[in-house]
Specification:
By secondary structure, the protein is mainly alpha-helical. It contains six helices and three strands.
Length: 121
Amino acid sequence: MDDMRLGTVEAHFANLIWENEPITSGELVKLCNRELEWKKSTTYTVLKKLCNRGIFQNVNGVVSSVISKEEFTGIQCAEFVDKKFNGFLPAFVTSFAKQRKLTDEEVQELEKIIKAYREEQ
């Protein structure tokens, strides 16, 4: 996938779709008018842009996601680690932990993730 960054307004629009999918394009227009004060043309322009980027699809007037919100967030996180930490996850975790103390629960969850990953190998 090419560019998985979303601006603030695009992110709000995407969340509306994820929270309401599948949704007819007509209902999406009404929702965007109510939530974002958009005209029909604006809704269709932004929808087309995000469909072209492979995030959503509009098939026979029904809008749904191609990738889930969780998958999308994972892609964004991976891109961030790649760009800011040369893809080295431990450097990211170290930097994060220096800025914000990890709770015991977070450390335990990370340990469970690592253990599960090792068992899959």
